[in-house]
Each structure stands twice: as C-alpha cells, then as structure tokens.
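Structure ticket #2291
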Amino acid sequence: MVTTSSLVVELLVIGVGAASWVVLLAASVFGNSWLIALQPFATLLAIPALAIVYTLGIVSDRMIDSLFGLIWGGSLRRSQFPDNKSYHRARRTVLTGSNRMADMIEYSRSRMRICRGWAVHSLLIALALNVYCGLQIEDDQLAYRAHIFGTSMFCVLGISSWHAWRNLTATQYLQVREQSEFLACKTDGGEDKPDDVRVTRAA
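Resolution: structure written out below.
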C-alpha cells in the first residue's frame, strides 16, 4: 500500500505548483524586495515554507479533484461503470481481494493526482508569469522572451499533464472493472488462477 511518506511527497509535489504561481503573483504586486529580504532567513523559514506548500497541496488537490470530476470524471467513469456506486463497489472488491492490484491502483492514483494538479498549476504559472513580466520586467525584449518561453513551456506541460491524467484515469477504471470481475469469478467457485492474472497496463 502507499505509505504515509509517499502521500506527503505527492502533496508536496502538487503544492510546489500552487506555491509557484502564488509567489509569482505576490511578486507581481509587491515586487521582489520582500523575497530578497527573506534570503538571510531561508534556513529558519524552510520548515514553515514546507508546511505552507504541503497545505497548498492538500487544498488545491481537493479543489482540482472536484473540478475535474465535474467536467470529465463522469464520462470517463461511464465508459466502464454506469454509476459511482458500482465503481466504488468494484474498487472495494479489488482493494480487499488482491494486495498486488490494490498497490497498483494506489500507485496509479498517486500519479493521477500529480498529473491532475500540474495540469492546472502549469496553466496558472503561465498566467502568473505573464502578469509578472508585464508588471515587473522593464526590459521589453527580456519580458517578451520570458513571456514566449514561459507560456509555451508551461502550456505544453499543462496539456501533457492533463492528457496523462486522462489516460491514467481511463486505464484505472478498466483495470478495476476487469480485476473485480476476475475476483468475482474466483469467489463464485471458478477455476483458482494465480492472483492478478488480468492486469491492463497504462498506455
């Protein structure tokens, strides 16, 4: 199963994305002087900063989960399950009946959360970077280059992360359905086969 340390790292990775655009927006409004003033206290502020990043990871993950579920979650789930109840029933069957598959599902969900988070945070970073370039960089050519490079890079990252999340989500629904059916056959007295024979890997 996914360990507590793995979950903490996952939320920190998501939180870094949220903290990046928050800091960029703050620098856009208040300038860079406050960041420079904090440099001598970097070591002292490391733990509070990690706590803030972790909290941003939790909050943004929950908000983005709701957003993605509202927009895309239903259509992806309906490709394998008619409703949430049947999906959660099948997932519960897999989690309680197959340790190996349960580990794979939790690992896949971890990757889904990271990709989902960065799909949104990348676009927000691109937006915040453009605001920063417009308000804080006086050299027009430098601001233009930063605008083009930053927008292109983070938009590509955001779109790629969304695509990866969508593929991982679709594959997990398929895995849960196939494995729950396999476990149900074993429970009903079917031929006793090695655990987790049917595993669909992510594309």
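Closing remark: The CA atoms of residues 97 and 183 lie 7 Å apart.
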